[in-house]
Amino acid sequence: MAYYYKHPDLVLPEDGSVIWRYMELWKFQAMLQENSVFFSRADKQTDNLEGEYPEGMLADLERSFGDGIPSNDGITYTFREWHTQKEIPSRLISCWSVGPSESRRMWTEFTNNKESVAIRSTIERLKSCFHDKAEPVVWIGRVRYGEEENRLPRSRFQWNVNFWLYPFFAKKDTFRWQNEVRAIVNIARRKQDQLGHSQNGCYVKADLKQLVESVWIHPQSPPRFIDQVGVVLTSCGFGNVDIYQSPWDSLPL
């Protein structure tokens, strides 16, 4: 099981803040069966700029690593090559949305059908579910949106940030509606291949009884679906978890 590390560069909402994770039922069932959280590779995200540095920052880092970065594959990479070929595919992400309730847009954007669920949890629960002193380390932080939130001093010596983590918590302002908090792990591609979970990412062991506060089903799902979700929860040892459904028309956009 992984463990959460409180990184000084990363900001989080209050521990009691409610967070949501949306998914199809089969993904939820697999998550319960694995007793794990699925982390997807940064280079498999829908945002094709995921993990990218601002061009000026990247150029500065390339100058700083002018001699290149040697790898155990026998190749010395420029910083740009290392980041693109090594760093981005090794960063795996679990995305959560902060808010008091679900939203219609989140259901629409992050599920492919009406037989889907959302896990309701809190910041405190997310941090606490990774509590074993074993690799990998889990970093959790709020995503920064837009140029102003991501602005850095011109000189690298005044950045005062971990530049390895920096681009993985930055997104364009057009994504602000997601109000995202994300957990990130770093697992080398060769280790991902050994784990063999998926080409898109890996399961990371977690205490799901700590993480899952309640389960909410798609507001437009058929009546039988709530019973189907109940069977999945019971069969995986989560029969005491409450299941709810919000009316579609009552949800914020």
Structure summarized in a few sentences:
The chain contains nine helices and 14 strands. The chain has about 250 residues and is α+β, with helices and mostly antiparallel strands. Strand 4 and strand 5 form a beta hairpin.
Layout of SSEs?
Blueprint: E1 3-4, E2 18-24, H1 25-34, E3 36-41, H2 55-64, E4 69-70, E5 76-77, H3 79-90, E6 91-98, H4 104-110, E7 116-122, H5 123-128, E8 137-142, E9 144-145, H6 146-149, E10 170-171, E11 180-186, H7 189-195, E12 201-205, H8 208-211, E13 214-217, H9 225-235, E14 242-245
Parallel strand pairs: 1-8, 9-10, 13-14
Antiparallel strand pairs: 2-6, 2-7, 3-6, 3-12, 4-5, 6-11, 7-13, 8-11
- The termini sit apart by 36 Å
Strand percentage, roughly? 25-35%
What is the approximate shape?
Answer: globular
- List low-pLDDT spans: none
Task: Assign the structural class, choosing from mainly alpha, mainly beta, alpha/beta, alpha+beta, or little secondary structure.
Answer: alpha+beta
Description:
The structure is a single chain. The chain has one domain (3-250). The protein is built from nine helices and 14 strands. It is an alpha+beta fold and 253 residues long. The mean pLDDT is 90. The chain is 28% helix and 25% strand. The strands form three sheets. Strands 1, 2, 3, 6, 7, 8, 11, 12, 13 and 14 form a ten-stranded mixed sheet that branches. A two-stranded antiparallel sheet has the order 4-5. A two-stranded parallel sheet has the order 9-10.
